[in-house]
């Protein structure tokens, strides 16, 4: 299979590097500045127990039809990515990798349901600068079918993609995507203060905010009767435990967990977009809960406030400090 990856950010670049290392034929579709450096000097990847330089073919648009096209853009960029490359997208299989739960719906209007695969990314990477990324932590690549049952083709594609990133299957990829959405809930806080995960959640007040947002989000999803399905390394019970145990204890778990995620600074996906002067995926993470609440004629005021504040940071490029967030969310009264 010829493989094309549309989206040369952290995840798309890392996947391309891992597949090329396995001897796969891969082309990476990326922004020109990233593609130019990769074509001239290769892609530098830090985090494989050192640093590797990997030769990858990089383009700014598809140049032909490919057997498998992996969309690795942010959710908000999916439609543009499709339109820019649709000349060569008629006959391929498609795999989505986005956070949130909307990616398959967005691309589903353009592709036959039998051609679509979906995935949950449990590994982490950071786009540092053109031609340079960091592999922060390993994890599974969970692959399933959003509209039809798992089939022989799913297994063939999964076997092809298995590399330094282990591939596993899911019979309910949509339920897992909702759980991953809550795993990504904390990214908004990093985006507000402009700091890494490790720096952000060394502040116990921000750990408290994390729990407040999660409690509100879980309450809305439960009210909507959405089935949450455990991830291989992140059971649903862990989330439910965080929202049911004493508040201080839950905040302490956030502190201990998120400050130790990676030896290298780990910047959440929302902050990475802001740092690259791009719109973030906030509307498809915390904003997803806000919209779900509105559909049920309910409210999610804390997450709605976070969405508004992240959009303000996107607009002004001015980050907030902990004291401001304490005041806005009345964290000193919790």
Tell me the layout of helices and strands.
Layout: E1 3-6, H1 10-21, E2 26-29, H2 32-41, E3 43-46, E4 51-54, E5 57-59, E6 68-71, H3 78-85, E7 93-96, H4 103-108, E8 116-121, E9 124-129, E10 132-137, E11 141-144, H5 152-161, E12 167-169, H6 173-183, H7 187-193, H8 197-200, H9 204-223, H10 236-244, H11 247-258, H12 269-275, H13 286-295, H14 301-316, H15 322-328
Parallel strand pairs: 1-2, 1-6, 2-5, 3-10, 6-7, 7-8, 11-12
Antiparallel strand pairs: 3-4, 8-11, 9-10
Helix pairs in contact: 7-12, 7-14, 9-10, 9-11, 9-13, 10-11, 13-14
Quick rundown:
With 334 residues, the chain is α/β, with parallel strands linked by helices. The chain has helices at 10-21, 32-41, 78-85, 103-108, 152-161, 173-183, 187-193, 197-200, 204-223, 236-244, 247-258, 269-275, 286-295, 301-316, 322-328; strands at residues 3-6, 26-29, 43-46, 51-54, 57-59, 68-71, 93-96, 116-121, 124-129, 132-137, 141-144, 167-169. The protein folds into two domains: 3-171, NAD(P)-binding Rossmann-like Domain (Rossmann fold, 3-Layer(aba) Sandwich), CATH 3.40.50.720; 177-333, N-(1-d-carboxylethyl)-l-norvaline Dehydrogenase, domain 2.
Verbal overview:
The chain has 334 residues and is α/β, with parallel strands linked by helices. The chain folds into two domains: 3-171, 3-Layer(aba) Sandwich (Rossmann fold), CATH 3.40.50.720; 177-333, Orthogonal Bundle (N-(1-d-carboxylethyl)-l-norvaline Dehydrogenase, domain 2), CATH 1.10.1040.10. 45% of the residues lie in helices and 16% in strands. The protein has helices at residues 10-21, 32-41, 78-85, 103-108, 152-161, 173-183, 187-193, 197-200, 204-223, 236-244, 247-258, 269-275, 286-295, 301-316, 322-328; strands at residues 3-6, 26-29, 43-46, 51-54, 57-59, 68-71, 93-96, 116-121, 124-129, 132-137, 141-144, 167-169. Strands 5-2-1-6-7-8-11-12 form an eight-stranded mixed sheet. Strands 4-3-10-9 form a four-stranded mixed sheet. α7 packs parallel to α12.
């Amino acid at each position: 299979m010829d493989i094309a990856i549309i989206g040369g950010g952290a995840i798309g670049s890392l996947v391309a590097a891992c597949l090329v290392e396995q001897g796969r034929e891969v082309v990476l579709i990326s922004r020109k500045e990233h593609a130019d450096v990769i074509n001239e000097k290769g892609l530098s990847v830090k985090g494989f127990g050192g640093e590797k330089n990997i030769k990858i073919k990089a383009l700014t648009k598809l140049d032909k039809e490919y057997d498998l096209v992996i969309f690795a853009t942010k959710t908000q960029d999916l439609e543009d990515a499709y339109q820019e490359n649709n000349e060569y997208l008629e006959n391929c299989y498609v795999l989505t990798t986005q956070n949130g739960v909307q990616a398959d719906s967005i691309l589903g209007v353009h592709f036959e349901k039998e051609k679509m695969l979906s995935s949950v990314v449990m590994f982490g990477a950071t786009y540092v600068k053109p031609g340079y990324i960091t592999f922060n932590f390993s994890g599974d690549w969970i692959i399933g079918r959003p509209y039809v049952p798992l089939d022989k083709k799913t297994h063939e594609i999964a076997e092809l993609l298995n590399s330094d990133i282990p591939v596993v299957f899911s019979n309910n990829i949509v339920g897992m995507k909702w759980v991953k959405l809550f795993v990504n809930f904390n990214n908004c806080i990093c985006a507000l203060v402009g700091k890494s995960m490790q720096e952000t959640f060394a502040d116990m007040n921000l750990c408290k905010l994390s729990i407040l947002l999660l409690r509100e989000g879980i309450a809305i999803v439960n009210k909507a009767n959405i089935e949450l399905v455990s991830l291989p390394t992140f059971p649903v019970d862990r989330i439910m435990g965080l929202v049911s145990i004493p508040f201080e204890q839950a905040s302490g778990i956030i502190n201990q967990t998120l400050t130790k995620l990676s030896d290298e600074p780990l910047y959440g996906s929302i902050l990475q977009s802001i740092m690259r002067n791009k719109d973030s995926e906030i509307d498809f993470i915390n904003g997803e809960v806000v919209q779900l609440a509105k559909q049920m004629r309910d409210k999610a005021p804390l997450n709605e406030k976070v969405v508004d504040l992240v959009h303000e940071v996107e607009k002004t490029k001015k980050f907030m400090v902990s004291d401001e967030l304490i005041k806005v969310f009345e964290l000193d009264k919790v």
